[in-house]
Amino acid sequence: MQRYLAQRLLLMVPTLLILTTAVFALVRLVPGDPVAILLSEQAFSTKWDQDQLRRELGLDRSLPAQYVTAMGRLARGDLGVSLYTRDAIGPAIGRRFKISAEIAVLAMIASVMLSIPVGVLAAVRANTPTDYLFRSVSIIGLSVPSFFMGTAILVYGSIWLNWIPPVRYIPFTRDPLGNLGQFALPALIIGVHLAAIQMRMMRAVLLEVLRQDYMRTAYAKGLGFRSIIGRHALRNSLLPVITITGLQFGALLGGTVISESLFNLPGLGLMMVEAVRQRDYPVIQAVNLVFAGIVIVTNLVVDLSYAFVDPRIRYR
Fold this sequence. Notes:
The protein is mainly alpha-helical. It is 75% helix and 0% strand. It contains 14 helices and no strands. It is globular. The N and C termini lie close together (6 Å).
């Protein structure tokens, strides 16, 4: 296990290096000059003003020189400074990451609580009206995008119930109930879409497990139905579900842009959108690096969790 973990951790370094290099090059291919965007807020600016600001931001140097500077900062653990706000990027990402992480955790809890029981019930009652109902609902959950569901709830909620989401973010430390109430609806909307995928996987894998010979042996030995499902079938069905759940969670931490925009939640996704709009190169690079690190670490945790779920799996 330790050797496998060390190998995976070492592979993270070249992976993040390649990604950072690709992002550094690609963001500079996007049309738009960050200096022009910064000075557009002023009523009047001259060519001298643009050249002066470009020198202050270090954008007058060649791309290789800018790349070496950026990599040197990353090697020291410094994510750089925003071109737009001139603030350190690391603390800003830390503040916003808490918001995105809370959405992701709540959405994942909601999806697992919905998908596992429903998937098990659909598999146990396969090809019955209950199964058909759950499968139909899951198809609807897959077909309806989260942004459409969120927009519909906001529009019809404001028309019928005279309700709109809070305009400002409510920190958990200041008002725990208000914070959870603000996050409950976006987390549930995302969770329903994720649960549809997990439920269908849970049903398919559990049906396959229930057809195995050792399950027939368990029935023949007189074991109770709940014991067979809970202790044998369900545990042997979890590996594919864990894989999907882990991938969803890793993508979810950086993929809540629309939900954050709809419900006024200043998370990492909204930070990325703002940085792209402002051509804030250091912020784009730093946020992408964080997203990549999250996905890599999540995949590693999912792989390691296999050994705890299935004792037959050993890493060397």
